[in-house]
Amino acid sequence: MKKMNWIVGIMSLATVFTANQVLAGDISINGSTTVLPIAQKVAESFMKEHPDVKISISGGGSGNGIKALIDKTTDIADSSRQIKPEELEQAKAKGANPVEFEVAYDCIVPVVHPSNPLKNITLDQLKGLYKGEIKNWKEIGGEDKPVVIISRDTSSGTYEVWEEKVMKKERVFPGALLQASNGAVAQAISKNPNAIGYIGVGYVDKSTKALSVNGVTGSKETALNKTYPISRALYMYTPDKAAGDVKNFLDYVLSAKGQKLVEEEGFIPLK
């Protein structure tokens, strides 16, 4: 798992909040902050082997990446959710025909401050917390302290998967504190003993405490066998059929070497 100072470094370099480019070059990648570390790690390795190819990477969320895909302002859109039917229609209306590449698996993990004694939480309890119905930790077996709810913003693919799998299409209550990236959520949790949030499994480190859900720990095994209830695939999309250096890069992501890099980042390879 990554160290917090590494996360902060990636956030500042990739300018998650401003979505400026990290590296100048021939292939542009935009989108999900969950997929961002995978894209960064694989791009660094790919460019070492292909010094004539330069890759620029920016974050900002899955929604922003797919919007750039629709507008044909990025070569690859990173997304932690599948593209929506209406987004496909918008892309086709602009002459694009998006192609999906499943590049990894992930568990969305509820996290609390390391001092929190709680170890497990149920889906129903998570929904109650994020609807604003559960307001004190003692209501779910914790200490007598108010709960601070931290969530991703609505442009995030992670938020949309959370809304689907945990909230069952109900909205997170307005009192939640919204953060623009996985790294920002992890930082907020690490500084607040009363807080709960959710992040991709690759972002879990000693600064936060991961909770099991319905008695199941988020891991490689539980994601692949689908026993962990908040697991998902991670994607890269191209506006049209990949060719040239873009195709070579995507082939590299999906290769044995690329999938090893996925695992090194704390995420789950496809096999």
Question: Could you give a quick summary of the protein structure above?
Answer:
With 271 residues, this protein is of the alpha/beta class. Helices cover 35% and strands 20% of the residues.
SSE layout:
Layout: H1 4-14, E1 27-31, H2 36-49, E2 55-58, H3 62-70, E3 76-79, H4 85-93, E4 99-112, E5 120-121, H5 123-130, E6 148-152, H6 157-165, E7 177-179, H7 182-190, E8 195-200, E9 209-210, E10 212-213, H8 220-224, E11 231-238, H9 244-254, H10 256-264
Parallel strand pairs: 1-2, 1-3, 5-10, 6-7, 6-8
Antiparallel strand pairs: 3-11, 4-8, 4-9, 4-11
Helix pairs in contact: 1-7, 3-4, 9-10
Mean pLDDT, to the nearest integer, reads 91
- Beta-strand content: 15-25%
Low-confidence stretches: 1-25
Fourth-tier CATH superfamily name of the largest domain: Periplasmic binding protein-like II
User: Terminal Cα separation, in Å?
Assistant: 19 Å
Number of domains: 2
Number of distinct beta strands? 11
Pairing-aware structural class of the strands and helices?
A: alpha/beta
What is the number of helices? 10
CATH architecture of the largest domain: 3-Layer(aba) Sandwich
CATH class call of the largest domain: Alpha Beta
Give the helix proportion (percent range). 25-40%
CA gyration radius, whole angstroms: 18 Å
* Biggest β-sheet description: 9 strands, mixed
User: Which outline best applies?
Assistant: globular
- Helix/strand order: HEHEHEHEEHEHEHEEEHEHH
The CATH topology of the largest domain is given as D-Maltodextrin-Binding Protein, domain 2
